[in-house]
Amino acid sequence: MAHNDDSFFREVNEELRSDQLKNAWRRYGRIAIGVAVAIVIGTAAWRGYEYWDNHASSQSGDRFIAALTLASEGKNDEALSALAAIEKDGTGAYPVLAKMRAASVQQAKGDAAAAVEIYRQVGNDNAAPQAVRDLAKMRAAFILVDTGTYEQVAAEAEILSAQGHVLANSAREALGLSAYKAGNMPQAKQWFQQIVNDAGAPRNVVNRAQIMLDNIAATGKAP
């Protein structure tokens, strides 16, 4: 999981260095930038601001890569300290990315409760891009399948389970697994059946859902 996380975050970091994604972030994810721009007067001042912002983003990117390296080396406490510093004074998307990576580090350390809490914070952060918020909710839900109640999983995942949502079938799988774990076979069957019935569901997810439906049928506890 840590290796996959690092690959994911490194890819995002590379994309953040492109002008296209930086502009998208400024447009959709950084409300405060409007205030900063409003007080910049004249072309010279604007160019100066642009230089500072690009320089600061580059520095944040370098610090973020260094933190990922610490995490990949198993230096979790050092990685958490480095990520916390980026959360505090990093620029652009890096604070929220640092928070997401910190959650996965906490999970790697075995502190599921701390990981879930961080993911919840990101999931409820209106300043973060919606895709990142949804991913945070999904990750919290899957941790809670093992450590929480069905109600806790539903609080994170149910909103993502609507038809057409990019994470719909992942959310349904988490909900189905949680219901199965709680012994509620009719509810578990409902969620897994939605996956099987979805023509757009990934094949591997459908296969897992069908296995769970077969297991539920074998129990005789769901009509």
Helix content percent band:
over 70%
Report the major sheet. Answer: none
- Which segments are poorly predicted (pLDDT under 50) over 5 or more consecutive residues? 24-53
> Please, what is the average pLDDT?
82
Number of strands: 0
Derived structural class: mainly alpha
Strand content: under 5%
Output the number of helix runs.
12
Give the termini separation.
37 Å
Rg is: 21 Å
H-E string: HHHHHHHHHHHH
The shape, in one word, is elongated
General description of the model:
This protein is an all-alpha fold. The protein has helices at 2-16, 19-28, 32-38, 43-72, 76-89, 94-108, 112-123, 130-147, 150-157, 168-181, 185-197, 203-219. Helix 8 (130-147) packs parallel to helix 10 and helix 10 (168-181) packs parallel to helix 12 (203-219). The protein starts with a helix and ends with a helix.
How would the blueprint of this fold be written?
Elements (H helix, E strand, L loop, with lengths): L1 H15 L2 H10 L3 H7 L4 H30 L3 H14 L4 H15 L3 H12 L6 H18 L2 H8 L10 H14 L3 H13 L5 H17 L4
Helix pairs in contact: 1-4, 1-6, 4-5, 4-6, 5-6, 6-7, 7-8, 8-9, 8-10, 9-10, 10-11, 10-12, 11-12
